[in-house]
Design a protein that fits this description.
457 residues; mainly alpha; 17 helices; 71% helix
């Protein structure tokens, strides 16, 4: 199947054929392997394929679903795929679409994590990661700028971002507390200054037409997508039952304080706090995985983010790397089964991270399909997104510290990596270089420095 994106929409008169479940399954599998570029790139691929080329869904219905996913915690691109799959082929369609968006990335990251832990001390591999670290620092800084340019529309939003930065940088405030405080500010602030927290524009501001679609603007909501309290209760009950069954199995296997049990509980909480994308929740993951549970080091966290940037799927899949390293280092299956321990931990972490996303879509989708008007109650999300900017900026400074002063401020300053970091930032901000070319160039520089100038390191 051709993965190239079309240059122009097909002829408006082309006949539309019903999409079988098998055909949809093949597309969702392909999407799982080509979904590079972060949420923006992934959403662009889905739009080009589903709205423009295949015309499975209209522009208006696509954007309506996307607006709902943007309001939820979790990876919006994966949730959008789940929503469209559910709308087309009921619950099994949503589960298949969402799962295939994630599974290729999980398998790839398990393999890369094994290579990293098994051969990370080989000079060539170490050199590649040496060059990638400053690129990751620049990418995080660029993410703060990208989100900030959209979210910080007035001085109040700037103030929320600044307060969040100070709270986490100077007082080491926990990320959930910052999210809660920002949400409360948005909730109460909207009552006396609604214009401050109103979303500036939106995804639906420039709806285009690409011809009739299978799920068109005026296509009636299919019976399975109509809201009912019994359906809502059933989905919530099944989701909660799956969570309890998985958590119960981990408790029976390792006890309440076992590494896998702690991972399941921690990443359940993380899944409910991912407002603003993966970069927003990384500080929380760092606080828990590095500082609290010691599943991996800060340097390994940076390396894991680099691996996450180079694989398809949601960037939040970096949690699979965290799980793999934690399972390996904690030897959750004993010293003779390190790979299996890492693979099991990565799978556990992925399950608990993405289970809430499926529940949100399958439970909330019928309510959203009941109305195609604008979604309300966005003020808390607007405030949270502003706070996230300050949190991500703090994360960029944390990465810069560990990259440029690997032994701490009392140690030497790595001038080579400083130059690479500045060059990477210029490439991102000034020349709009893509993630993959940037990481490739920085990896080549790191490899050359390691092999040719080892004393400088």
């Amino acid at each position: 199947m051709d993965t190239a994106l079309p240059d122009a929409p097909p002829a408006l008169s082309a006949p539309l054929q019903p999409v079988s479940f098998a055909e949809a399954l093949r597309f969702w599998l392909k999407l799982g392997f080509i979904s590079f570029g972060g949420p923006a790139g992934q959403i662009a691929i889905m739009h080009a394929e589903l709205v423009e080329r295949r015309r499975w869904i209209s522009e208006k219905r696509f954007l309506h679903a996307l607006n709902f996913c943007m309001l939820l915690p979790g990876p919006e691109a994966q949730q959008l795929a789940t929503y469209i799959g559910w709308l087309m082929h009921r619950t099994r369609g949503g589960i298949v679409a969402g799962a295939l968006f994630v599974l290729p990335s999980l398998f790839i990251l398990i393999a890369l994590s094994w290579i990293y832990l098994r051969f990370g001390n080989v000079p060539a591999v170490a050199g590649i990661f040496y060059g990638i670290k400053p690129a990751v620092t620049a990418l995080v800084l660029h993410a703060a700028h990208r989100i900030g340019s959209r979210a910080l529309k007035n001085r109040w939003m700037w103030g929320i971002a600044a307060a969040a930065f100070v709270a986490i940088f100077a007082f080491d405030a926990p990320f959930p507390a910052i999210v809660l405080a920002a949400g409360l500010i948005g909730h109460f602030g909207a009552r006396w200054a609604p214009e401050v927290f109103a979303p500036g524009g939106g995804h639906g501001s420039a709806v285009q037409r690409y011809g009739p679609a299978l799920i068109d603007d005026d296509t009636p909501t299919p019976p399975h997508a109509r809201f009912s309290r019994s359906h809502l209760a059933k989905v919530v009950a099944v989701g909660l039952g799956l969570w309890l069954a998985a958590m119960g199995a981990l408790v029976a296997m390792q006890g309440l304080h076992g590494t896998l049990t702690q991972m399941g509980w921690f990443f359940t909480k993380a899944a409910l706090l991912t407002f603003g994308g993966a970069y927003a929740v990384l500080p929380y993951v760092y606080q828990g995985a590095v500082e609290q549970y010691h599943w991996l080091s800060g340097t390994q966290m940076i390396d894991g983010l680099a691996l996450g940037e180079t694989t398809p799927g949601p960037l939040i899949m970096v949690v699979a790397f965290v799980g793999f390293v934690g399972g390996w280092l904690k030897q959750v299956l004993g010293p003779d089964s390190l790979f299996l321990a890492g693979a099991l931990a990565a799978t556990v972490v992925t399950f608990f991270t993405f289970l809430p996303s499926f529940v949100f879509i399958l439970a909330g989708g019928p309510a959203i399909e009941a109305t195609h008007g604008r979604l309300g109650f966005t003020a808390p999300l607007s405030a949270i997104t502003a706070a996230v900017v300050g949190v991500i900026l703090n994360l960029a400074l944390f990465f810069a510290y560990h990259v440029l002063w690997p032994q701490g401020f009392s140690g030497r300053f790595d001038a080579i990596l400083a130059v690479v970091a500045v060059a990477a930032a210029i490439a991102l901000f000034r020349f709009k270089v893509g993630v993959m070319p940037l990481l490739g160039a920085c990896a080549a520089i790191g490899l050359a420095v390691t092999l040719l100038l080892p004393p400088l390191r």
